[in-house]
Amino acid sequence: MRHLMNPLDFTVEELDRLFDLADDIAADPAKYAHACAGKKLATCFYEPSTRTRLSFEAAMLNLGGSVLGFSDAASSSASKGESVSDTIRIISCYADICAMRHPKEGAPMVAASRSGIPVINAGDGGHQHPTQTLTDLLTIRALKGRLSDFTIGLCGDLKFGRTVHSLIAALIRYPGIRFVFISPPELKVPDYITDQLREKGIAYEEVIRLEDSIADLDLLYMTRVQRERFFNEEDYVRLKDFYILNNEKMALAKEDMLVLHPLPRVNEISVEVDDDPRAVYFKQAQYGVYVRMALILTLLEITV
Amino acid sequence: MLNVGKIEEGFVLDHIEAGKSLSIYHHLQLDKLDCTVAIIKNARSNKMGKKDILKVECDIDTLDLDVLAFIDHNITVNVIKDGEIVDKKELTLPKEIKNIIKCKNPRCITSIEQELPHIFVLADEEKEIYRCKYCEERASESTYSW
After folding, report:
1. Residue A80 a catalytic site member
2. Is A129 a catalytic residue?
């Protein structure tokens, strides 16, 4: 039995198979409409995350399965002090697979170690959010046709943004990737990541202004400056409006540059950009459902 | 100078940083063994000025000493048999250390689930980097407690 805790749990070859399956699902959803009939997905969300939870639920429903679960800790037995290990043992009796979101880092791993069913980490604090990374990779592969040989700009909160850290870790396994890190000095990508890139001889540069580098990019990955990652409101207010993408900046970019964003967006991408065909962040949400469908099938070892 | 007699079989842990011997005594769980242990504090040392020494009389297969490599590289381990030093044990960094140090990351699951073992995994042998098994926080003086 396999779990998914970290996007690197799957080898590049396994990811290729997963993405091939996701492509097939996208091409012919009807073929998979009953693939999980009689199976149940438990969504155990100890903190609210409507988007991720609904994406998992939509994925299971699209496969003909059912869903059950809770959407915040207050409505679970955690409010009575039950441990994650105990909860997952109970959930294992009710469902066939579990997607777990928890504010504490490592909680899904603890669950997986005690679980009788596959556990998917649906986000654990600032640590990992592997299905977001799989979504990002599938979107790039589907829309660019490859996961190698491009320059990707990552913009915004590169210090606390776990989606960015996971995406970098996943992309460095492919050849010919060049990174441009665009952030205020306060929110720079952590040293351990740039150390790793230098050791592996992977090209990267760190810049302050989005305008200066946008023309070089094949992909631009925008991120939100998250209020909850800051210790004080003052820092948040000061930094949140840096790096807003608008049509003026988009005019400097290549004609086939794609803009991705893990969503929700606050104001870092102006709504005027939404109509630009290069803005693919809403398509990304659709790919998120396909990749979660492929993941559920893979972990349940169901073939169609 | 205080004199502590020879041991027949066991270990002499030498060059322990002065003052650290008692914590090593606990980390090696010597309190749980029914054997003779001599704790020598503040012994004179040409190299270190003063040092601690632990003498443990036990079967040499009883103890897992790898954790010493994590605690202090400079400790030397003399293996004693029939009253003589037969080997100087090379310490290798353990792949995993359990319940020796505690993760202090307030976002780690171990911060709320007290019964979980605190496990750190050797992530980079060359750089001697350990990370919490759960949250992957790097073990450094500011991120763990003894």
Report:
1. yes
2. yes
Question: Where do the domains of chain B lie, and which CATH numbers do they carry?
Answer: 10-89 (3.30.70.140), 96-145 (2.30.30.20)
Q: In this model, does residue A210 exceed pLDDT 80?
A: yes
The interface predicted TM-score (ipTM) is: 0.85
Nearest CA to CA, how far is B95 from chain A (Å)?
Answer: 19
CATH of domain A7-128+288-299: 3.40.50.1370
What kind of fold does domain A131-284 have according to CATH?
Answer: Rossmann fold (3.40.50)
Residue A266's pLDDT is what? Answer: 84
Q: Would the CB atoms of B136 and A105 count as touching at under 8 Å? A: yes
pTM of the predicted model, to two decimals? Answer: 0.87
Nearest CA in chain B to A192: B138
Q: Is A165 assigned a catalytic role?
A: no
CB-CB: which of A83, A85, A104 is closest to B108?
A: A104
Q: Which of A39, A40, A43, A52 is catalytic?
A: A52
Give residue-wise pLDDT tens across range A124-163.
Answer: 988 899 999 999 999 999 999 999 999 999 999 898 888 8
* Nearest-CB residue to B112 (from A104, A109, A124): A104
Q: Is-contact A225 A268, C-beta < 8 A?
A: yes
Does the annotation mark A51 as catalytic? yes
* Torsion angle of C-alpha atoms A212, A217, A219, A225, degrees rounded to 10: -20
